[in-house]
Write a structure and sequence with these properties.
six-stranded mixed sheet, disordered C terminus, 28 helices, five-stranded mixed sheet, alpha+beta
Length: 714
Amino acid sequence: MTTADDLIATVRTYNPYSNQALLADAFAFGAQMHEGQFRHSGEPYFTHPVAVAGILAEQQMDDATIVTALLHDTIEDTKASFVMVEKRFGREIAELVDGVTKLTNLQLTSSQTKQAENFRKLFMATSRDLRVTLVKLADRLHNMRTIKSMRLEKQAQKARETMDIFAPLAGRMGMQWMREELEDLSFRVLNSEARNSIIRRFITLQREAGDVVQKITSDMRVELEKASIEADVVGRAKKPYSIWRKMQEKDQGFSRLSDIYGFRIIVATEADCYRVLGAIHQRWKSVPGRFKDYISQPKSNGYRSIHTTVSGRDGKRVEVQIRTREMHEVAETGVAAHWSYKNGERVENRFAVDPVHWISSLTDRLDEDQDHEEFLEAVKLEMYQDQVFCFTPKGDVIKLPRGATPIDFAYAIHTRIGSACVGAKVDGLRVPLWTRLKNGQSVEVITAEGQTPQATWIDIAVTGRAKTAIRRSLREEDRERFVRLGRELARVAFENVGKKSTEKALRTAAKALAIKDVNELMARLGSAEITGRSVVRAIYPELEDRDGDEIEQGRAVVGLAPDQRQQRGACCQPVPGERILGITFRGQGVIVHSIDCTALVDYEDQPDRWVDLHWQEGTHGPVNTVTFDATIANDSGVLGRICTLIGEQNANISDLKFIDRKPDYFRLLIDVDLRDAEHLHRVMTALEAETSVSSVLRHRDPGLAGASHGEAVN
């Protein structure tokens, strides 16, 4: 294991004035707190914080960040407390360690609603001090490097989480090297066969063609020497995951994939970058549509470079990146360059973006009023975007994600322009609104008075900003309809508990829920922002104290041990009258599934976890929630009639969510509280008989099988 002296020596290579005593004290404290703890591999646990500190030292981070890395698991996993860390190391370090602990506790692979809320918390923590996220990324990188010691199912979970969240987050922060390594480590777990296949093809290619990288690098150096340009030229084959992604995007086999080699040319000045570009294009033919100038139009995370693709030796396409040394530093370390030290002093890199500025610009654009699904969509769009640059007729530059349309362009200028858009011209030619914009195009938005956003724009728009504005406008336009629907939903909800939805009752509910008036309450109810059950509960809490998610122990289900708890499977939502069985989980007891639940396939090789169960005869247990997937006509009064039909069957709607809106139909998920299988059958029959209902199915989601489960009981 790296010693304290080794770590201090590394830090002092770039910061001779670092606080040696502070680093040594943190090392000793971390070792003491983690004494007796071991990793899955059998190594002492403290080897992990030391490795994380080493990764950050390679990025030339400040003392506070290195100390935080050494202590990042102490508050969570040892007897150390916030107060103890603060007293010994100061407020700044204690808050950084506490911030990393809170990020670690976010379960980012949970259900979509929970995931969205955790994303919100992640970005809030990031906006306060980005060093918290840098430590967490280094923590995840080392965990992925040593992931083989984990159980296979845990490896897969961590790899998916890394691929979905941490790798794109590293890329969004400009740390491309870390993104590539995280992606490749995840790829090794999630699809090792494909990765090994690509590596084998590389070995074969190298055997047949020799060292192509070395040959092309030599060719480039010769051309640069002819042009009297001093430069460093480095070439490499692209990472296996990067090649795999290109194969998937282009639907091509490895043999047909051309640009699998990348070359980087680093020079002294910005002027030299363009001289290199000229020399490269004079010697090799450029590939149309593969040129990007991120020097004149830098990315929002500070990345600057010229990208071009040329047909190199033997017609092989190669990507060339051209940048200065300062630009290269930002490209390698991203926002970490903001804290970099050299010779004991913070280095002011003129190309480094203030991390507080760009992360705040992200959080500011994420509307607090959005629902969870919209928030998650907006965050992922921001995290994964690859920008294109288009121009207004006046020459102003508009940055947009790849795949953006004129609608996105219009909303990027101003919400008012977007809402009034009726058409667009690209490079002087009229184009449909669904046209995908390309780098360097000039876009003119055509507007008209009285125009309002159309529902179909949701599917055309790409940016979170445009989608949010369109949805908000549609909600306002539909407000009257939602108010009428809300009153119908309220009537059914109140009648279900033997009460009437009088104006006074609704005013009381609005006040209890801190909503300004009855119309606003009804609009939110009609648009599924709140449920009928929550409105009733606001006035009559004693009538709505049922929990439909958990079956009462020892009453409805037979076959459990006396000390076993049980919970209905969210994936199949079994109800009394259906054949059931259970799967044991540590921390959750027994999860009850219907006999035909597709999620049971995952446990076929673990028969010791299966429990034979059946419903208690003559009892129905508490009310159980079942989700229907319904497609209905987009006609006046249809949704109200459906709510009435369900109410007439003595069933209660507890939630309603639109998942697809088209001009001629709606598709929605309806949560209905039911007693048993017979009650379920009656409600579905009533809905199927309604002429405006084109289909109604029982919604089942195998992906929810493990959403709330703990560790498996072995």
